[in-house]
Amino acid sequence: MNIRDLEYLVALAEHRHFQRAAEACNVSQPTLSAQLSKLEGELGLKLLERTTRKVRFTYNGLQLVEQTRAVLRELDTLKSMAISQKNILSGPLHIGIIPTLAPYLIPHISPIICQKFPETDLYLHEAHTHQLLQMLESGKIECAIMPMVRETGPYVEIPLFDEPLRLAVPLEHPFAQSLPFQMDKLRGQKVLMLDQGNCLRWQVMRYCYQFDAEEDTRFMATNLETLRSMVAFGKGITFVPLLAALDGNKNDNIRYLKCHNPEPKRTVAFILRNGDTMKSLYEMLINEIIKCMKDYISECDLIV
């Protein structure tokens, strides 16, 4: 038995498909299948019920998967402890990031990591909040960058920056000349929203509830760019985070309104597991991101 075989087992439990599990482990399907058969032989236990349609784990298999996950987490802890003793951020670093941040923040943090931490191999994982927290819990990622929400409460939350939200409206909309935009004007308005999987949806909904605005149920998007297209075609209004608003400032048919009383915003944070031995090393990266984004947010606030 070796660690790699245990990783194959956990991958199969997560994907429930031999080919997808093999791809996740960067091996061929026959190799993964053969190694799991070998593992069954070494343990003297049947772990899988192999059928042509689906992968089914036996009771013993499910128990072993749970124990294996715990073992792999402990191994990750040992590796982190060894790295932390070197007092340098190095090796693979798996960071999770949400879709409403990823395309707009990655261009800023990637150069920082490459320049300031050259011994680090960066791996970025884009997924929704609940998916990233599951990945963080299972050890698939070391940390995540996302807004602070109720679900991140049980984890270590280190604020990086406050990102204002801008109200995106078509140029022909009556609000287009409302500079600055007072939030009480939202009363009775309908606002385009992202779907249920996006934490930005709930942050926007909070402000809509506060000012008696409603969700525009004619259309629901899975990403910001689709929402932006709807606004550009004059199909409604929506809230867009500042970094995305600046990225999309080239669209001539959208005006991004700075809002007041209050200014809607979200707090973007660096999320870690409790007791992570790498926290002191991550703080060097965190400080670099805070410094970079503080200056950039200030510049963006003047432009958009």
Overall helicity:
40-55%
Q: What is the 3D form?
A: elongated
* Cα-atom radius of gyration: 23 Å
- For the report, how would you describe the main beta sheet? 7 strands, mixed
CATH architecture of the largest domain: 3-Layer(aba) Sandwich
**CATH top level label of the largest domain:** Alpha Beta
CATH fold-level name of the largest domain: D-Maltodextrin-Binding Protein, domain 2
Percent of sequence in beta strands: 15-25%
Order of helices and strands: HHHEEHEHEHEEEEHEHEHEEEH
CATH superfamily of the largest domain: Periplasmic binding protein-like II
Category by helix and strand content: alpha/beta
- Can you count the helices? 10
> Which regions are unreliable across 5 or more consecutive residues at pLDDT < 50?
none
